[in-house]
Design brief:
Layout: E1 5-7, E2 21-22, H1 85-91, H2 94-101, E3 120-124, E4 130-133, E5 137-138, E6 146-147, E7 155-159, E8 166-170, E9 176-182, E10 192-196, E11 201-205
Antiparallel strand pairs: 1-2, 3-4, 3-11, 5-6, 6-10, 7-8, 8-9, 9-10
Protein name: Peptide-methionine (R)-S-oxide reductase
Family: Belongs to the MsrB Met sulfoxide reductase family.
Catalytic activity: L-methionyl-[protein] + [thioredoxin]-disulfide + H2O = L-methionyl-(R)-S-oxide-[protein] + [thioredoxin]-dithiol
């Protein structure tokens, strides 16, 4: 049911030809391995899935809903946060810079929000733009936070250079979030999994 890491290589040893080995092909999200909305969705329960299908992008109508009393819309216009790499280095931690600006990946199962299911909103750790509502988060068992949809207009999608995966970035600042996959068999309203690095996110509680 859950996806377990069988053997991994320390983060410092990651390279283009060194990858963790997983017990299930669904755990391929951020490691270049091949591979939507209802309030009743069981976010905290690990779900089983059929073998994944081909990742693709489908134009879908964006939904604006009121879930769990949290109402948030992305407020920053696409590309509205412009900084030089030196400016980003000055305001981000080394790990944030490596992932958000250099498209790095955090070690699976170590992220702050992997198994976290508090009520609130996940903002971009780089520019503060709201990206995901907590009611769209689910436990994919893959080692990274998973969401079945982002806030309307908050997420950009672009094919990786090799065409194998679809990268997702913050529409406001371009910060790297992770990758999105579709057709993997998860029982979510959109049948999508936004596989996101915890370091790319900053959680804001609903009661704050």
């Amino acid at each position: 049911m859950g996806l377990n890491v069988l053997r991994t290589t320390p983060l410092s040893l990651f390279s283009s030809n060194t990858k963790p080995i997983f017990s299930n092909p669904l755990c391929s999200s951020l490691f270049n391995i091949q591979s939507t909305s209802t309030t009743s969705f069981f976010r905290s329960q690990a779900v089983s899935a059929t073998p994944f299908g081909v990742s693709s992008i489908h134009n879908q109508n964006q939904r604006r809903g009121f879930r769990g009393g949290v109402v948030v819309m992305a407020s920053s216009a696409p590309g509205s946060v412009q900084k030089s790499e030196d400016e980003w280095r000055a305001i981000l931690s080394p790990q944030q810079f490596r992932i958000l600006r250099q498209k790095g990946t955090e070690y699976p199962g170590t992220g702050e929000y992997d198994k976290f299911f508090g009520e609130g909103v996940y903002n971009c750790a780089g520019c503060g733009t709201p990206l995901y509502k907590s009611t769209t988060k689910f436990n994919s068992g893959c080692g990274w936070p998973a969401f079945f949809e982002g806030l309307p207009g908050a997420i950009n999608r672009n094919a990786d250079p090799d065409g194998m995966r679809i990268e997702i970035t913050c529409a406001a600042c371009g910060g790297h979030l992770g990758h999105v996959f579709k057709g993997e068999g998860f029982p979510t309203p959109t049948d999508e999994r936004h596989c996101v690095n915890s370091i790319s996110l900053k959680f804001v509680p609903a009661d704050s």
